[in-house]
């Protein structure tokens, strides 16, 4: 369109380019795009000698005083790929986690969106201006197919898919284009969304779509969050509901309210693949709302990801269920973010930016003035602290649905067991008796093993050597399926040795008890027992995983044997016995959070027992029967545990009393990495005495990973920002050559 007022005042936009854009740069907006650009738009811009895709950050923006601006080249999609609040969220993340904006955007936007995957356009044809009779006659003789198209369109009286018309009538694309150019035919293109709503785990597993009538404690929780929703102001709620108290139904009610009032909602779960029942239940309960539910999981193809993202951006899908990255969903009018199992460490990302999905959820809700619900039977110490201090509302559901009893704990002292029993030490006598009874009564059992343990490692009784990964400082693990020894850090594989690599003794044996050893022990004790095994090996195949679960549910197995994953939200009504084979995480993890993790584990796993009409028993095998986590879990006393644990944390100044920032130094040369870490700490203390309490540098528990030697420093601080401001400038001084690299992990969860 010609500009009626002559001179065009050039618009200016700030854009963050993905390649090398740690911050936003100014660009001029060409006349063709004037008035069209909005924050969150994906555009192509020149950058040095190249071009890069990037996100419009601010538009219109103040032009910088001196610079001659280069111009935005192209608008990729009419639909913004980020909501304005996510731009603010990204800025907060860059500041809080100490990284560049572009590295935040790399996480925030799916690769398919960032790389500009083209949407599939559906092009529809209509007859715009029917030609006069003689023109049409001429056309019939000279270009019969074009005439046929016109006849076809005029007969149809509604838009016709171009691809279908072209194929059906045997037309060339050029012929159709010519008709469009002449104005006879009108083409309308709209984005065709490849279906991303179909979820491989959606098999509804016999779950009814109708909701339950909320019981009083559920109704109270819903009312409490509803009040926040109605106020349209930010508030975080901690929903502490014991296992089986019906938290999912509370989330569903809240999401239904939000969607029926025109808003949208995000539902975060620790891992979609591990919570198929929760996801299935949610989908079937939201099916009647007239909106799509996007299930955001790792099996989506790039195209599906792109389409799901666009569907959310367009408001076609108003609910998303997914793991931590779903917190960035571009939903318009987002009013509710639910974080289920908020205590789970998997909400923390292990690569830069090492953000915590739960904390980002709370931050996003606060930027939007939305409600955030953090739900768990075992809330994290951090969230409990926030609730206790009045920063979060606390909603409690202390009883199970229908007053089903909580499971009874039986603690087995494995020290005695080892003394008194000959043969296998995997299953205590009490557990064996329990399993036998369940088989006779045709009830089911779950046996749980801790994968974290150094189980299945190869040791030599003659020289005491353990077989280690050549690149990482950990023992290799036996995988019977293909008789390989594997490293669980770098996936190094080698044939399982038959003799000790150090002294050639043939007496080497595999120590510890992985799921496979437990399976063998069960087979010896109960030849007719049907055992289903779920561990990392089976997890890789999602169909198998799902089949094992549904077969177990249908009663085709007596026992489900597995690792951590079965601790999560599974719900089997016929399970009356849960055995925890090795409860002592704290013996294996050199981590101040070990007691908390052990307590969570015991409580969550126990929560799988007695969820139907039958009562449940939990048998805990432990070498530390008197320890806090075991004793408080046994008494079902969450508040007792956190109070004692909080005291300990305060005493040592650990989170949540202070923030923990873990600083990792890595290098191929151990001395050099250690030297840089030490010099860094000295300089930091000289420049900023008293800013942080410092532990280390010390070798990491996993000292060597992928041929890199690792040392860490812990900073314990009351606030993160001043620490980062002091640390980041030191990089230029100590990390100039790339021999040693560093990683800053703010609010570190994993300290291995
Ligand atoms: P949680 O997530 O708190 O462990 P769930 O949401 O899995 O608990 O609910 C436990 C069981 O109780 C589920 O089988 C669910 O269908 C059922 N349930 C939930 N709410 C009600 C209710 N109000 N009335 C009857 N059954 C319910
Ligand atoms: Zn040996
Ligand atoms: Zn390795």
Inertia-based shape? globular
In spatial order, strands of the major sheet run 11-12-10-13-14-9-15
Rg over CA atoms, rounded to whole Å, is 30 Å
Structural class: alpha/beta
Query: Quick check: average pLDDT?
Result: 83
Return residue spans where pLDDT drops below 50 for at least 5 consecutive residues.
1-8, 193-208
Q: Tell me the major beta sheet.
A: 7 strands, parallel
Indicate how many domains the architecture comprises: 5
Number of helices: 25
CATH architecture group name of the largest domain:
3-Layer(aba) Sandwich
Distance between the termini: 62 Å
Beta-strand share of residues = 15-25%
Q: Name the hetero compounds present.
A: adenosine-5'-diphosphate, zinc ion
Total number of beta strands: 30
CATH class of the largest domain: Alpha Beta
Would you tell me which CATH topology of the largest domain applies?
A: Rossmann fold
- Helix % is 25-40%
For the record, what is the CATH homologous superfamily label of the largest domain? P-loop containing nucleotide triphosphate hydrolases
Characterization of the model:
The chain is α/β, with parallel strands linked by helices and 752 residues long. The protein folds into five domains: 80 residues, no CATH class; 73 residues; 188 residues, 3-Layer(aba) Sandwich (Rossmann fold); 183 residues, Rossmann fold (3-Layer(aba) Sandwich), CATH 3.40.50; 88 residues, 2-Layer Sandwich (Alpha-Beta Plaits). It is 34% helix and 23% strand. Strand 19 and strand 20 form a beta hairpin. Helix 1 packs across helix 2. The chain is globular, with a radius of gyration of 30 Å. The N terminus is likely disordered. One zinc ion binds next to loops. The site of one zinc ion (ZN) has 8 residues, from loops.
């Amino acid at each position: 369109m010609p500009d009626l007022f002559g001179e065009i005042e050039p618009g200016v936009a700030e854009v963050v380019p993905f390649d090398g854009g740690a911050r936003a740069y100014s660009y001029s907006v060409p006349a063709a795009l004037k008035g069209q650009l909005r924050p969150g738009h994906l555009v192509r811009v020149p950058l040095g000698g190249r071009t890069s895709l990037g996100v419009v950050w601010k538009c219109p923006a103040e032009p910088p005083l001196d610079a001659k601006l280069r111009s935005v080249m192209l608008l990729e999609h009419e639909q913004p790929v980020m909501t304005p609040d996510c731009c603010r969220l990204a800025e907060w993340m860059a500041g809080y986690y100490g990284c560049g904006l572009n590295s935040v955007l790399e996480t925030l936007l799916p690769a398919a969106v960032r790389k500009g995957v083209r949407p599939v356009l559906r092009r529809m044809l209509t007859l715009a201006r029917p030609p006069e009779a003689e023109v049409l006659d001429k056309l019939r003789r000279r270009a019969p197919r074009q005439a046929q198209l016109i006849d076809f369109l005029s007969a149809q009286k509604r838009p016709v898919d171009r691809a279908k018309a072209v194929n059906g009538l045997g037309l060339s694309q050029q012929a159709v284009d010519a008709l469009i150019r002449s104005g006879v035919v009108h083409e309308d293109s709209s984005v065709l969304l490849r279906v991303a709503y179909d979820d491989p785990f959606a098999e509804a597993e016999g779950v009814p779509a109708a909701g339950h009538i909320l019981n009083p404690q559920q109704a109270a929780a819903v009312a409490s969050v509803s009040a926040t929703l109605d106020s349209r102001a930010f508030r975080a709620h901690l929903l502490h509901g014991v296992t089986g108290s019906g938290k999912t139904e509370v989330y569903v009610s809240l999401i239904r309210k939000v969607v029926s009032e025109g808003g949208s909602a995000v539902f975060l779960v620790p891992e979609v693949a591990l919570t198929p029942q929760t996801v299935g239940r949610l989908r079937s309960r939201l099916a009647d709302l007239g909106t799509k539910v996007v299930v955001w999981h790792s099996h989506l193809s790039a195209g599906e990801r792109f389409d799901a993202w666009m569907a959310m951006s367009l408001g076609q899908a108003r609910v998303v269920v997914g793991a931590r990255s779903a917190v960035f969903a571009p939903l318009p009018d987002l009013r509710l973010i639910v974080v289920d199992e908020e205590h789970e460490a998997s909400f923390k990302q292990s690569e830069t930016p090492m953000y915590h999905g739960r904390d980002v959820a709370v931050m996003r809700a606060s930027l939007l003035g939305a409600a955030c619900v953090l739900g768990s039977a075992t809330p994290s110490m951090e969230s409990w602290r926030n609730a206790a201090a009045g920063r979060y509302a606390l909603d409690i559901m202390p009883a199970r649905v229908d007053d089903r009893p909580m499971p009874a704990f039986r603690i087995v002292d494995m020290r005695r067991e080892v003394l008194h029993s000959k043969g296998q030490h995997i299953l205590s006598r009490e557990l064996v008796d329990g399993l036998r009874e369940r088989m006779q009564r045709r009830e089911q059992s779950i046996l749980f093993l801790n994968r974290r343990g150094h189980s299945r490692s190869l040791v030599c009784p003659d020289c005491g050597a353990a077989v280690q990964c050549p690149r990482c400082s950990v023992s290799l693990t036996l995988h019977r399926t293909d008789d390989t020894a594997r490293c669980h850090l770098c996936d190094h594989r080698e044939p399982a040795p038959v003799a000790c690599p150090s002294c050639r003794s043939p007496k080497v044996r595999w120590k510890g008890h992985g799921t496979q050893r437990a399976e063998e022990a069960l087979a010896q004790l109960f030849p007719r027992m049907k055992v289903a095994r779920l561990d990392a090996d089976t997890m890789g195949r999602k169909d198998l995983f799902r089949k094992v679960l549904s077969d177990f549910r249908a009663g085709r197995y007596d026992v489900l044997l597995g690792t951590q994953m079965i601790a999560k939200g599974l719900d089997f009504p016929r399970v009356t016995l849960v055995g925890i084979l090795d409860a002592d995480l704290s013996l294996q993890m050199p981590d101040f959070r070990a007691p908390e993790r052990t307590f969570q584990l015991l409580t969550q796993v126990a929560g799988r027992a007695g969820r139907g009409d039958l009562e449940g028993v939990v048998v805990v095998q432990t070498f530390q029967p008197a320890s806090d986590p075991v004793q408080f879990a046994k008494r079902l006393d969450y508040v007792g545990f956190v109070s004692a644990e909080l005291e300990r944390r305060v005493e040592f100044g650990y989170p949540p009393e202070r923030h923990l920032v873990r600083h990792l130094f890595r290098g191929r040369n151990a001395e050099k990495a250690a030297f840089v870490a030490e010099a860094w700490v000295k300089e930091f203390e000289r420049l900023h005495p008293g800013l942080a309490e410092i532990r280390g540098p010390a070798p990491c528990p996993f000292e060597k990973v992928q041929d890199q030697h690792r040392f860490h420093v812990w900073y314990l601080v009351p606030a993160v920002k001043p620490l980062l401001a002091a640390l980041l400038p030191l990089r230029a001084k100590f990390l100039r050559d790339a021999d040693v690299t560093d990683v800053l992990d703010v609010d570190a969860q994993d300290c291995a």
